[in-house]
């Protein structure tokens, strides 16, 4: 998802944190998910530098926004690309006139 204001992905835009759309520590968790492919839930406190409860709040916010997902509540978290955010994550991946013959 991209921030409408500056074109950065929503999770990289510091204004999203200031506006309290995403909690502080989100970028660290997402960076780990990109680099490692997934993040063990037990590693989130060390990744964010937070105690257990604030780290769970970061996790919950990222899951609620559809940015991270897991196959169960104990499974590792991985990046998710919700269909409703496809245009924001991948602009012009499927252009509107791609199938037309002119």
Q: Can you give a write-up of this model?
A:
The chain has 102 residues and is mainly α. The chain has a domain at 25-80: Winged helix-like DNA-binding domain superfamily/Winged helix DNA-binding domain (Arc Repressor Mutant, subunit A). Helices cover 37% and strands 4% of the residues. The protein has helices at 14-18, 26-36, 44-48, 52-64, 86-89; strands at 68-69, 78-79. It has a two-stranded antiparallel ribbon. Residues 1-6 have low confidence and may be disordered.
Topology of helices and strands:
Blueprint: H1 14-18, H2 26-36, H3 44-48, H4 52-64, E1 68-69, E2 78-79, H5 86-89
Structural class: mainly alpha
At the first level of CATH, what is the class of one domain? Answer: Mainly Alpha
**CATH architectural category of one domain:** Orthogonal Bundle
Instruction: Assign the CATH superfamily of one domain.
Output: Winged helix-like DNA-binding domain superfamily/Winged helix DNA-binding domain
Spans of at least 5 consecutive residues with low confidence: 1-6
Number of helices: 5
Question: SSE order, as H and E?
Answer: HHHHEEH
Quote the average pLDDT: 79
Write a compact overview of the structure shown.
This protein is mainly alpha-helical and 102 residues long. It has helices at residues 14-18, 26-36, 44-48, 52-64, 86-89, and strands spanning 68-69, 78-79. A two-stranded antiparallel sheet has the order 1-2.
Keywords:
single chain; 102 residues; mainly alpha; Arc Repressor Mutant, subunit A; two-stranded antiparallel sheet; 5 helices; 2 strands; 37% helix; 4% strand
